[in-house]
Amino acid sequence: MSSYYGNQPDPEEAVAQIARDAAAADPEDDDVLVFTTSTEYRVRVHPIKPMFLRMFRRRYRPPEPPMQTITQGGKSWEQENKDDPEYLDAVRIFAISSSEAMMRLMVLWGVDILDTPEGAIDFEHDKEFRNMFATAFDDSSGVPVEETALRYEWMLDRVFPSAGDVMDLTRATNKILGIDEEDVASEEETFRRALSEYADQGVAEGESRTGTASA
What per-residue string of b and e applies to 53-73 under the rule 16 or more CB within 10 Å gives b? Predict the structure, then answer.
């Protein structure tokens, strides 16, 4: 899930503007914020409370690239080095952790279920799901699964189980936060580059350890 704001509008103001727009329009007409998932749940994505955004932004701050000195033609100046390996690794870690955190916020506090598929059981009465988690976690750890965590897992398993569902939720979240498609594409490219650098580094280290690296 996209969560690096770059030069985008302040997320809190963007959420406030979305709320103002929603008051003047029928949300049912918005096919980005209202959609049907692969399991036939019809959902509406809406802004979360500003308090949650403030907490999110305090905890998850995008890494800043280091500065490097460039000398050319007898002149020197400082500029950002966005190809620095440590920076790319930090971008990768930030992208994963912040995206997971924003996903959790939106799933728990930013989604209304409008219609359910025939025969579906709601979270409170889904004994099969609760028993499954009790067997998988409670017995092994001795610590009961916290209710909010259980509801989050239920939403992912029952309502948003596919990659396409997650992408639809991501698009809705980006719209709410005022993040446009070009910046999402730019962020994804940075993320892919960071992952590529990380993978290449791992291969090189593996070859070195096994003695197969070329001289």
Answer: beebeeebeebebeeeeeeee
